[in-house]
């Protein structure tokens, strides 16, 4: 009896292990629609796997011509807690000659292992009268749908606009009812701006020499932030279509069947050229495009304590959001406030157009003349492949009324320039013998209230002075606290524009991203717009910055990228703003 129980336990254990092994077993098979066909028939070949894999490599299909494929379909479901997965690559072949042909092995990598299908032989005979392999609904949909990514430039310069237009080509034989995105590209190493498509209007065109209708589904303007080979990830969509069948209804009309197909635009690679070093101006700040530059003042004559506006403006076409405006050199005797940044930019398929400006409020305190020297702005024009430097006009500010600056002015009316005035009339008078004088009251200072007040007030001020001195000394010794205060001021400075745009998703995240890059540029003296997130991470870690703060900074940059095509709430924007203030403060204390 005991032996039977042990045998039963061992059998159950063996069955459980076998079942587990079967669940984890990988299958990769090739299935043919038929093994014998006429030369005027079509052959459908499917490669099916029960686990997702990479680097699929089909056989060469010797003796056949591929008329469609590969088309990809995925099926995944959960039944009683068990996952069922199937992925299939399908091809439609037509034979090119009669005879026996072998379809060799296909390969794929799954979990680091390479799997192969078994070869199969197909016999091709003479043409048959009635081919029995009429196109299926899926075959028609595969042949009639094509998603294409058209790239405006394959070899742009760094920070030069590249436009990607996604077009869906549809054969006149079918009609599209709806679609949904399955996988949106992330556009890594690009600054991206999507141009909304408000209306999907079908237009006539050709695809591979055949008449098609096409619809523009998506338009994106990219500015590469890194030189070298950059990859544009594919856009994948699930398309719902109505496909005609060979059946007809009671009134003779064609019966349509609805199906869905997954289409992909495929990966595109562009070669981004580095900006030339030859002829690069010393003040070049990364502007690429075709621009105009000016510095203007709202008035050139005013009185002291009045204000004027000095505007530094760049307008034209190019990467307007990705460079810093030059700063004017103003006399130290003028009171200058932090500039207000303004932008008026529209994004078209050719890139960004518009203008950006810094508006400086200036208040003179003294009378005099104050020149605002000419400043220069440099940019690279990709059309002419040359650097251009523009210089502003010199502006002279004249303060008409107000106090003189005693540090520079001279006293007016010295004694050496004055003349003695001699009175006219009688120059001598007799002394009065009766002056009519009257006695005044005697007022003793000692013992008065003023005497005691002046004597005891200094004694009371001594402890107050000692307390104030110790307080200031404690504040001076609090190095960490002073760093925190300074860091908080710095965070407010770089995030002031982003704070004004809270609630406006696009403007907020553009300002936030620019503020983060400007902070690193100011602290590390580097052009972070030319760096990838990995490079920024490496630089900060080399500076001994805490890994958590580095991770928070990179997470903010990712949020700025994600915000361009994802819905973000006001709560999320406020959270990102608070996080940015904290991260900049932490970085500043460490840098």
UniProtKB/TrEMBL annotation:
A Pfam family it matches: BatD
Source domain of life: Bacteria
Keywords: Membrane, Signal, Transmembrane, Transmembrane helix
KW Cell cycle (keyword) present: no
Secretion signal span: 1-21
InterPro entries named in the record: BatD
Residues passing through the membrane, by range: 451-469
Protein name: BatD family protein
Organism name: Flagellimonas marina
């Amino acid at each position: 009896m005991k032996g039977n129980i042990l045998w039963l336990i061992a059998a159950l254990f063996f069955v459980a292990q076998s079942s587990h092994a079967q669940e984890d077993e990988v299958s990769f098979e090739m299935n043919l629609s038929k093994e014998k066909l006429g030369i005027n028939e079509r052959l459908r070949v499917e490669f099916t796997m029960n686990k997702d894999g990479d680097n699929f490599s089909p056989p060469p299909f010797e003796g056949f011509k591929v008329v469609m494929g590969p088309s990809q379909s995925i099926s995944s479901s959960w039944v009683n807690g068990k996952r069922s997965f199937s992925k299939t690559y399908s091809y439609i072949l037509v034979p090119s000659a009669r005879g026996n042909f072998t379809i060799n092995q296909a390969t794929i990598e799954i979990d680091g292992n390479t799997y192969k299908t078994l070869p199969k032989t197909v016999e091709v005979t003479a043409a048959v009268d009635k081919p029995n392999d009429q196109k299926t609904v899926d075959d028609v949909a595969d042949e009639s749908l094509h998603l294409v990514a058209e790239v405006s430039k394959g070899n742009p310069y760094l920070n030069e606009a590249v436009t990607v237009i996604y077009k869906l080509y549809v054969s006149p034989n079918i009609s599209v009812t709806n679609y949904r995105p399955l996988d949106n590209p992330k556009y890594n190493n690009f600054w991206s701006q999507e141009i909304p498509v408000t209306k999907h209007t079908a237009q006539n065109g050709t695809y591979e020499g055949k008449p098609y209708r096409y619809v523009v589904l998506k338009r994106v303007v990219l500015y590469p932030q890194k030189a070298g080979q950059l990859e544009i990830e594919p856009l994948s969509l699930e398309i719902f279509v109505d496909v005609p069948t060979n059946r007809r209804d009671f009134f003779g009309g064609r019966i349509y069947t609805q199906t869905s197909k997954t289409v992909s635009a495929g990966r595109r690679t562009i070669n981004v050229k580095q900006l030339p070093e030859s002829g690069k101006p010393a003040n070049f700040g990364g502007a690429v495009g075709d621009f105009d530059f000016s510095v203007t003042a709202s008035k050139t004559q005013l009185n002291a304590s009045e204000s004027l506006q000095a505007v530094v403006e760049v307008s034209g076409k190019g990467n307007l959001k990705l460079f810093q405006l030059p700063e004017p050199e103003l006399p130290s005797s003028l009171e200058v406030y932090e500039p207000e940044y303004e932008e008026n930019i529209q994004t078209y398929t050719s890139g960004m157009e518009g203008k950006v400006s810094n508006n400086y409020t200036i208040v003179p305190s003294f009378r005099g003349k104050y020149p605002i020297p000419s400043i220069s702005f440099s940019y690279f024009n990709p059309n002419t492949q040359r650097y251009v430097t523009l210089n502003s006009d010199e502006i002279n500010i004249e303060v008409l009324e107000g106090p003189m600056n005693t540090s520079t002015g001279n006293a007016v009316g010295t004694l050496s320039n004055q003349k003695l005035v001699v009175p006219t009339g009688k120059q001598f008078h007799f002394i009065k013998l009766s002056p009519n004088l009257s006695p005044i009251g005697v007022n003793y200072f000692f013992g008065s209230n003023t005497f005691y007040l002046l004597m005891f007030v200094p004694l009371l001020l001594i402890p107050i002075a000692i307390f104030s001195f110790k307080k200031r000394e404690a504040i001076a010794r609090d190095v960490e606290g002073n760093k925190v205060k300074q860091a908080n001021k710095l965070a407010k400075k770089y995030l002031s524009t982003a704070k004004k745009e809270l609630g406006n998703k696009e403007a907020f995240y553009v300002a936030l991203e620019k503020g983060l890059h400007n902070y690193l540029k100011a602290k590390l003296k580097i052009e972070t717009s030319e760096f990838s997130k990995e490079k920024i991470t490496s630089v900060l870690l080399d500076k001994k910055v805490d890994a958590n703060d580095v991770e928070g900074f990179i997470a903010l940059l990712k949020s700025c990228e994600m915000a361009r095509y994802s819905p973000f709430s006001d709560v999320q924007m406020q959270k990102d703003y608070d996080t940015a203030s904290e991260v900049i403060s932490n970085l500043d204390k460490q840098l």
